[in-house]
Amino acid sequence: KEIVKMTKEEYKSLFDEEGRIKDMSTFPSIFYNKDVDLSVAGDLWKLLLNQDDAQKTAAERHEISLKNIVLYKEVKRQWQATTPRQWVNHPDLRKLVSLLEDDLDKNNNLFSHFNRPACVKRIAFNILLTLSCWNWDGAAYVEGLITFLSPFLDSFIKDADCTTVTTHENEIVDIEVAEANIFWCFEEFYEHNQLCDLIRPSDQPMLKRLFIAIGFILDDNFPDLLQLLYQKHAFSLDFLRDDVSKWFTTCFHDADIRRLWVSILSFTSSFQFFQCFIVSLLFSLAPQFVEMNPLNSDEFIRRFHNLKKQVDMNLLLLNAKKLMEILNRKKTQGK
Length: 335
Hints:
- With 335 residues, the chain is mainly alpha-helical.
- It contains 18 helices and 5 strands.
């Protein structure tokens, strides 16, 4: 089945004259597994991450954006105003800035498609350092966090220079306005999806609960698949830990990641989505698992990580939705 695209015109048609979503019964599920045009992708992130705003007018949402821009600038000024003496006396800040700069350099590939990658990288630096100042205890930068920000950068930025950003609608906006829009989307994404728990390896309670829930789904609905995993030395789902904690940026990139994340935010809950998506992933790879003859769990894991990058995102999302419908139907029937 072909990927379903949503054009700018189709997206705009979902709103009434004042900018409210016309049919709330289809929101946000209408965006599930849709390849939404980049010219409206930024606007869609704002709606999906603040779903109550779907019933606000465009003017009301614009007013909120203006207030958020002012607040972002105030938070950003906190680290911009650091004096040389404060810098010397703040080793934690120096260490964080060094980590952030090093990680941005390690991930140069995330910026290579821009005409001026250094300018977009600077935007990423500003947003991530400001997020650290906004929530030092819960969102201070850790290695790899840039991979979570990248889909938001790609949605809001076509290109940039030192002072302005060009959007995908070819509109030229002030760089701090663009930074603020991206910052507040990313901050909502970070908080609502408990990234603080996921990105710190020593503290991942969600993953344990998730893997237990998936085990029950496999046992109740796909016992043959579960037995196949056991036969291939996969006695736990820990081999998926890195994929889930990085929201599958380990497997997919660019448009696929945007479509995946939009689908997650269009689902009933991210926890439910990950259950269905992971079962869908394992199910789609079952024929390859059958052909495997791994000597131990390490060999299985190595081969799994090679295979997962070849799976079609469209198929995974379609099957994940079908599985959720099956599970909901069984629950309704009391089985």
